[in-house]
Each structure stands twice: as C-alpha cells, then as structure tokens.
Amino acid sequence: MAQSAALIDTLKQTLKSHRLTYAEVARKLHMSEANIKRMFASKRFTLERLEEVCKLMQLELSDLFQLYEESRQRITQLTLEQEDELVRDAKLLLVAVSVRNRLGFDDIVSHYQITQAECIRALAKLDKLKIIDLLPHNRIKLRIDEDFRWLPNGPIERFFEKQIQSQFLKSGFNGELERRLFLFGLLGDSSTQVLINKLQSLAKEFTELHRQDARLPLEKRHNVGFMLALRPWELEVFRPLRRKSG
What we know:
Elements (H helix, E strand, L loop, with lengths): L2 H15 L4 H7 L4 H10 L4 H10 L4 H11 L8 H9 L1 H11 L4 H7 L4 H13 L3 E4 L3 E4 L12 H14 L20 H24 L34
Antiparallel strand pairs: 1-2
C-alpha cells in the first residue's frame, strides 16, 4: 500500500475514534457528503484539505503523521522461512544487512558489486517481507523495530556464527580500532547478573551509536564486529582433573 493511501486510512480511523461521521465532516467543511465519501474512496486529498480535516479533530498535520507512523507494523523478528530465504541468496542478504545498517540505494550499488537492477529486485523482496518500505526513486524506509533481532539459533545466526568462527576470531586484534579482552574467574550469581545487565546496557548503547552515525557519509563509517558473550564455562582440559563429589 502506498504511503499516501495508508495515511488516508489513518485519517479515516482517527475520524472514527473522534466519532466524526462523513456527514459531520461535510457539514463543517461546507461540502456535500457525496464529495467527502468520494475523497476517502479515491484517497486523493490536497494538502490544504487534509489540514482542514485534521483541524476538525484539533490535530496538526504532524500529529496525523505521528499517528500513521505508530500504526505501521514494526517487526522485531522474521519468520524461519523468511530467514531461510535471505540465507539462500547472498546478494539479498547483503542488501538486507546494508539497509539495516541504514545504507541508501546509491551507497549499496557504489560500494558493492551489485547492479542497480539486482539491488531493486532485492529491495522489492525486502519490501514484500515488510522489512522496508520501498519508496519512489528507490528511497528506503526501515520498518524494523529498534530492538530487531535475528531468530535465536536461526538460519541467520548460524550463518554468522560460521563467519565468526572462520574469520572474525582469526585475528591478533592488534590493529587500529581493534581490541580483544577475555577474562576468566569465579563469580557468584549476583555478580554474574551485574555483568549481564552491563552487557545489555552496552548492547543498547551500541544500537544508539549505530543509529546516530547513520547521519555520517558512508566513507566516514566502518563495518564493525562487536561480540559480547558471558556464560558459565570451564576449560575442557581441566575437567578430568576435578575431584568427584561424594
């Protein structure tokens, strides 16, 4: 559904919530009820007329746009079938990851070996999956929630897990903007929970910085891998040395 049509649907629902009928709108705007019904059926409004209808409900146009944005479905996860579809097509997955990283159409085709036609096809698929809205002139609007996550142990996570094991961890982490820190010790439950809370807070900060830096030009941004992990764990080489209880 086009954005303009969806906006009129939001206006229609807002009128209902304010208990305003087409007849009342027509009377207050000095129009016939037939004309009002025709406008809503065709979903064709001038900006001036849209503003007039909003004023009947003591709303600004910006209020209507906010209501429209809130009414849109915001997805937090894909289905198993949708993730499978992304993993099977490397270019589709590339475009999906790129738009999640807030790259525009021109950024994607100039930065990667993907043609404009291939990129448009991929974006159309992502639009069908409701990950994005594909707007005129290949503009992209994300529909995923800020807390969007891949399915736990799903196709995408398993794909990236293989990449992490085979590529990401095979580094000395000695270069600029590279760090690796591994700590190992004995902690109680409460102390472990403190660290878990800090990890969650740091993950949120990463997401916020990612959102802020989307304003920077692409050449000022880097693909960054950031891994946080914590679990009860013991080196396998020590396990045979444990005394058996009892």
